[in-house]
Specification:
The chain is an alpha+beta fold and 66 residues long. The chain has helices spanning 3-15, 37-44, 50-54, and strands at 25-32, 55-64.
Length: 66
């Protein structure tokens, strides 16, 4: 979700009483790499998710809250 989309969603939730307000959301920096053959086969055979197969490093860099 882009920052602009998040801002629109926050404004819409503030204006519409039927929508629950969004909570704090973390922002992460991900380091990705192509999976090896075994990793790709695990994804294709649904033993692991694609995200789990390609993420090497995940670091939280911030939190967004309204």
């Amino acid at each position: 979700m882009s920052a602009r989309s998040l801002t629109r969603a926050c404004r819409a939730s503030a204006e519409d009483p039927d929508i629950e307000p969004l909570g704090a959301m973390a922002i992460y920096r991900l380091t990705l790499a192509w999976p090896d053959t075994d990793g790709l086969l695990a994804v294709l055979n649904e033993k692991t998710s694609l995200l789990d197969a390609i993420v090497i490093d995940r670091k939280r860099v911030g939190i967004v809250a309204d």
